[in-house]
Amino acid sequence: AASAGFYITLAADVAVMAPGTHIGAAHPATIGGSPGEQKEGSRTMEEKAASDLAAYARSLAEARGRNVALSDEAVRKSRSFTESEALEAKPPLIDFIAADVNDVIRQLDGRRITRFNDREATLRTAGARVEHLAPNWRQRFLGAIAHPQIAVLLFSLGMLGLTVELWYPGSIVPGVVGGLCLLLAFLAFQVLPIDVTGLLLIALGLGLLVLELKVPSFGALGVGGAVSLILGWIVMMGNTPGVTVNLGLIVPVSLAFAAIFVFLGRLALASQRQPAVTGTAGMAGERGRALTDVPVGGIGTVSVHGEFWSATAHESIPRDTPVEVVAIDGLTLTIRPIERSSPGGSTS
User: What is the mean pLDDT of residues 120-127?
Assistant: First the structure.
């Protein structure tokens, strides 16, 4: 039992350790930030926290009749003790050593304990039933998504899903899946100790990828965005002991995300730059043939795309004249004649 577990053990009615275990190392530690970022104010706050927790540990040890001096050293000096050292101390830090739960129950039977309110009680544990409480499906689910590597995958999949939906509106499924993955990723980020600097690097990487689509940089912005994503993941989850993400996952996921983002973005922008080929906007510039005479300011009939349209023109157009659509107003086209080339090369 280290850190918070040390205070729980000190406060317990009965303190028990198993063979081969240790207890102590309860000095407060600051989570987040690199060692080089520690300043005088931070050290002062840490000393104040250590002094306060040391006093708390001494009060618990005194109330339980345990070793006050060793409790103070466990906090101020991060000292740890084996099960033998904790039991043989004068006074001891623990009550006894037990090999397993059944051994604990056997040794507790008939033991007299004193509560914090000075009331005494005798424990009767002979024949006690042991119940094992397993996590339910909700707890297992939250525990699974709170893993750093799962959080990275959820965030990347979420961003990809929203990217597809933004570039190709109406896809629906990528947007829904992407939104769910992002929400689950943010839920995991609330549980995991993350560095804000890492999140800013990831945001910078996304911004550079967007600029790669807009600004001709010969791939420099795209490479910078991918590098920023990789560094962001490393920084965001790399400063807390025990919370790490494998580089073998970060690098390929970040590179794949950057490549897919840029590829889909370029396809979307290319399709947006193409002239419209359907609807009213797609009619402009199309060619057809006058089926009737089209007088100036009057209405005639033309054939465009194999369809019959009402048409008007700013000049008189004879029947069977090739025409080009200039504009469209409702269901009426504005047309102009297409000049024909004469055999001699001149136009008529």
Answer: 89
